[in-house]
Amino acid sequence: MAAKNLKLADIAERVGVNRSEVSRVLSGVRRQGRTVSPATREHILEVARDLKYYPDKNAQSLAKGCTNTIGLMMSMTGDRPLTDSLAEHNHEIIGALAYTLHEYGIHLLLAQCAPKHSGERAVDNMVHIMRSQLCDGMVLSDITVDDERPAALEEIGLPFVVIGSPHGIGLPAVDVDNVRVGYEGVSYLYGLGHRHIAVYNIGRNLISGQNRFHGITQAGEELGMGRRLEYRDDAHSQMDVYTAVTQRLNEPSFPTAIFTEDETSAFGAERALRDAGLSVPKDVSIITCMNSRLMRLIAPRLTTINLRHEEVASAAARLLAGQLRGVQIEKRSKLFPPVLEPARTTGPPRKRRFPGR
User: Fold this and answer.
1) Which residues 6+ apart lie within 8 Å of 9 measured at CB?
2) What confidence score (pLDDT) does residue 130 get?
C-alpha cells in the first residue's frame, strides 16, 4: 500500500496537481463540481505509464462498493456432463455475454449448479457466491419449471436477468420464443407434405422444453395430425437419439421427417438413418434447432431453426448492465422470434420411401 501511495504522490508532484486529482483520474471517478482538464488528464495517464503504476482494482472495487463483475449461473440438467452442455449449448451465450459486458467495463464470472439428483440445491450455490461478494448481479440460464433461483434473487435484492422464458410474471427475462420454435418446426415439415413426424424435444423440466412442447402440440392439433405426430423428450445426446431412431426403424410405418432439439442430436438421427441404408432428405427429412456459428462451419447443410443465442445473450447483458447503473427496467419477458433457415436436409416426402418395406 505504501508503495502505491508514494507513486501517487510522485505522479502528482511531476504533473503539479493534488494527489486526490491523480487518484480520481486513475480510478475513473468523476465528482460533481470537480473536473480535470483533458490535457491534465492525459498528462497524468502518461506519467502513470512511465512510472509503471497500476491501480489496485480490488481496493477500487471495495471503495466503490462493487466488483464490476456479473455472474452467469448455469444449471446442469439431466445426466449430461457440464462439458457437453458448455460445448453444445452455452459457448455462444458465454461469448456474447463476455463481449457485451466488456463494453461496459464489466467482467463475467462463470458459476454452475449440479442437477437435483446430486442433492445439491442451485439456490445454495448462488447464495454462497453472493455472500462471497464475487459479483454485482446475476444472469440465470437453464431455467427449470420449478426453479427457485429467480425468487431467491428477488428476495435478496440482487439485480438479475433471466435467459429463458420463466413461468409467472414480473421477471426481467430475454429469450427466443420457444412456443414458436416448436410450432414452426412442425408446420414447416407439414407444409412440405409430411404427415408423419417424429419429434425429439429438449426435456420438459426446462421452461424452454415446456414451451416448445406447447408449440409442437398446438401445431399438431391445428393440422389434425393426431398420433402421426410422435413426441419424445427422453433422448437428448447424439447417442441417445441414434439409439432411439435405430430402434424406431425396426417398427412399422416409420415417420417421413424428424425434428430434433439441436444439431448434435440431429447428427445422431442422420447417422442412424445412414447406417440403415437410408438417405437424408431423399428418404427422411431432418430439421433441428440452434444453428450456432460453430455448427454452421461443421454442418452448413442442416435445415435449422435459429435460436439467436448471441442476440439473446447480448440483450440480457445490456439489460443487466443498465440495472447496475440505476436504469429502471420493465420486469417482463422480451422474446425474439426464431428464424427458420431451410437447407439440404429437408424436402417433400417420397411416395414410396423405403423399398422392400
Assistant:
1) 19
2) 66
